[in-house]
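Exercise 3.2. Students should predict the tertiary structure of the chain below and write it as structure tokens, then compare their answer with the key that follows.

Predict this chain's 3D structure.
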Amino acid sequence: MKQKLLPLLLAASLAGAAAPAFAQSAGNWTVGIGVHQVDPKSDNGKLAAGTLPLSIDEDAKPSVTFEYFVHDNLGIEVLAALPFKHEIAVKGVGKVGQTKHLPPTFSLQYHFNSDGKVSPLLGLGLNYTTFFSEDTTGALAGTQLKLDDSWGLAAHAGLDFKVGETSAVRVDVRWADIDTRVEVDGAKLGTANIDPLVYGVAYVLKF
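Answer key:
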């Protein structure tokens, strides 16, 4: 996904070079349809008193955003997506399970240079992540895995490349504070620190 974002960014830049403005005013709505990849940080913590170093892989899914502008250039955004699926491994042991999660994120964000052909945005908000469909395999096969839901801060930065009076291509990156307590057969083993970067590209329409 990271490798694909550079040509998409270049294409959006070329498309936006001759595009009209995509200004956002109070009362406007935007809807974005795209894809986002959740890329957990490399060090996901250690369980069982530091004896089990975790590794959680990445996943990409279609996504949608809704944003309402409460003031010129200032909007409240909700990010939603299809469930992400991640494999869970213990370093030196191998895959021990997998889980799905939904990470709806709410952000207050400001759009700079909204009358221009390229408009940066910055946002800060709250992420809620719910985990489900936990399965075990390998060394944990036959046990019951449980991951607690998570609340945490979220940050957002992106660029809108105008392709019409009511449309733009957006390339963005997000960070979310996602930590979940891990239980196996009811025994509390510790906390998994996921804290991913989330890369995305979307087509945004203004109403």
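Discussion points: Residues 2-206 form a domain with the Porin fold (CATH 2.40.160.20). The chain has one helix and 15 strands.
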